[in-house]
Specification:
about 20% strand; Penicillin-binding protein 2a (Domain 2); 21 helices; elongated; Beta-lactamase; alpha+beta; five-stranded antiparallel beta sheet; about 575 residues
């Protein structure tokens, strides 16, 4: 019996093995074949996660490709305590590189069960590279986070604006084009390792925001800011602006402002500094407005450049007298001399011939009662309700003052845009600052836009000739550059108490000193507005804003290699013979 059992045992064991194997195979078949799809999905659900991702914010460049705003990696140093092999050594090395107390690092190193402890955020590229070269297990750099970076610091700061902590653009380009610059958001699947770390998600470059190329020339912008800063110091001003525009297209070539700020450190700045006073601050332009009034009279054929009038120096309006500068009387003068000598009573005479209603209608055509439409955030404008009310109330003196730029509020951008009509043949152009928009390597070029025709080509030709005389023999003489015909107009206007934040009617002894110049005068390539806020070392713009224009115009002539209008030696030789 025992012998028989001994013989049966191997067979029973074999049968048992086959039986168990069959059970296992049957179970495997059930799990892998019948229920395979379900368990595969379950496993994928544990290892894969749906993650919200956002494309990279688009970059912003100057016209020649120099960077104005970039999105770059914002590396941080972290450790995985469970993976660090020599914590003492790692803490010592990190302390040395990061200038952090070693005990502080050790506290994070000793976090049991942790695979991710941040040691320091926003480290420089140089420090990040030093950490990488340590090649220590469990010590690493996380470069997933991004930050906005402005490599030129204060250059064109009010133009670009900044990106706030909520990743929204504020002011300037960043705010106006926020939707285009922002990366698109989408959901994507990512893999996680057993410790929960996310592996790199799939390529998200298709979600990246648009990049922008501006009309602003970096070199001209840089020089405009340089000359402006030097002029403010030299003439004792509190601030100022320079705008350079192509009068034929509306392209902004430069838009400088002082004081300026660093968009990389915007939090400490006041609104007055970060806002763009070229587009957001109202001022009274003064005598640079006179050519606007004169152009209306010429366009309506009410006056010609050669027409004369008798100047007595002052004109009475009730109990007030409206006078020329220093109450000077010029006698019999032509309309050209009215601009050349900047005679207040002369443009008052022209405005009276035009009529207040038509004068207001033209101001609207020139765009003074609405936004210019520039592609920058928060553009301001004044409806000039006081002047309109003066028409209804028949307040004559208000129109006398407005004819030479007092009592009418506009932005620097408004006056240079309107003045461009006088130089480009009569068209009001929409000013713009973005030339090209790039979306995933597809480029869209922004085209110039004519808003409307305001004056005729003949009127524009006449005004150019008249304004050349301001530079050749008038208060703009310091703008002259040998070999070139330059047109322009000076302006010195009083600052209302209200503009200084003083609750008081009337005007202070502060001034805005301005010069509007364009060149070459008979085929303009650029127009420049120089505006200084209350220079204290000179009384008029003839000796402040005009010299700044001269230096910047000379730079642009050389930089753009604009050929001269005439040979200086030949011209002087001809004059000598006469």
């Amino acid at each position: 019996m025992n012998a028989k059992s001994h013989k049966l045992r191997p067979g029973l064991i074999l049968i048992l093995i086959f039986f168990l194997g069959g059970v296992v195979l049957s179970r495997l078949f059930y799990l892998q074949i019948n229920e395979g799809a379900k368990y595969k999905a379950f496993a994928m659900g544990q290892q894969n996660n749906v993650l919200d991702v956002e494309g990279r914010r688009g970059d912003v460049y100057f016209s020649n490709g120099e960077s104005l705003a970039l999105t770059e990696r914002d590396p941080l140093v972290f450790v995985s305590p469970e993976e660090v092999e020599d914590k003492e050594k790692a803490a010592e090395k990190l302390s040395e590189i990061l200038s952090i107390d070693k005990t502080e690092i050790m506290e994070k190193m000793n976090k049991q069960g942790s695979y991710y402890q941040v040691i320091q955020r926003s480290v420089s590229k140089e420090i990040a590279e030093r950490i990488k070269t340590l090649n220590m297990k469990g010590v690493a750099i996380d470069e997933k986070k991004e930050k906005r970076y402005y490599p030129n610091n204060q250059t064109a700061s009010q133009v670009i604006g900044f990106l706030n902590e909520d990743k929204k653009g504020q002011y300037g380009i960043e705010e106006f084009y926020n939707d285009k610059l922002s990366g698109k958001k989408a959901a994507t699947t990512v893999d996680r390792n057993p410790w929960g770390f996310v592996f790199k998600p799939e390529d998200t470059s298709s979600l990246n925001g648009n990049s922008l190329t501006l009309t602003i020339d970096y070199n001209i912008q840089f020089m405009a800011e340089k000359y402006l800063a030097e002029g403010i110091e030299k003439y004792g001003a509190v601030g100022g602006n320079i705008i350079v525009m192509n009068p034929n297209t509306g392209e902004i070539i430069a838009m400088a402002q002082n004081p300026s700020f660093d968009p990389n450190n915007y939090k400490k700045e006041k609104f007055e500094v970060i806002s763009n006073s070229s587009t957001q601050k109202i001022f009274e332009p003064g005598s640079i407005f006179k050519p606007i009034t004169m152009s209306i009279g010429v366009n309506e054929k009410l006056v010609t450049p050669e027409d004369t009038f008798e100047d007595s120096g002052c004109v009475p309006y009730g109990k007030y007298n409206v006078c020329n500068y220093a109450e000077k009387a010029w006698g019999t003068v032509t309309m050209t001399e009215v601009l050349r000598r900047s005679i207040n009573t002369g443009v008052m005479y022209v405005e009276k011939k035009i009529g207040h209603k038509k004068f207001l209608d033209y101001l609207e055509e020139f765009g003074f009662f609405d936004k210019t439409g520039i592609d920058l955030a928060n553009e301001s404008f004044s409806e000039n309700k006081t002047l309109k009310k003066a028409y209804n109330d028949k307040v004559e003196i208000a129109f006398a003052n407005a004819s030479f730029g007092q009592g009418i509020g506009i932005t620097p951008l408004h006056i240079i845009t309107a003045f461009s009509c006088l130089t480009n043949g009569g068209n009001l152009m929409r000013p713009y600052i973005v030339r090209e928009i790039t979306d995933n390597n597809t480029k869209k070029e922004v085209q110039p836009q004519i808003v409307r025709r305001v004056i005729s080509e003949d009127t524009s030709t006449n005004l150019r000739k008249m304004l050349v005389q301001v530079v050749e023999g008038g208060y703009g003489h310091l703008a002259k550059i040998p070999g070139y015909w330059i047109g322009g107009k000076t302006g010195t206007s009083q600052v209302p108490y209200a503009s200084l934040g003083i609750n008081k009617a009337g005007y202070s002894d502060h001034t805005w000193q301005t010069f509007m110049g364009f060149a070459p005068a008979y085929n303009p390539k650029f127009i420049v507005l120089v505006k200084l806020d209350n220079p204290t070392k000179t009384k008029t713009s003839e000796y402040s804003a005009v010299p700044i224009f001269h230096d910047l115009a000379k730079y642009i002539f050389d930089y753009w290699q604009i050929p001269p209008d005439y040979d200086v030696e030949e011209l002087e030789s001809g004059l000598d013979k006469k």
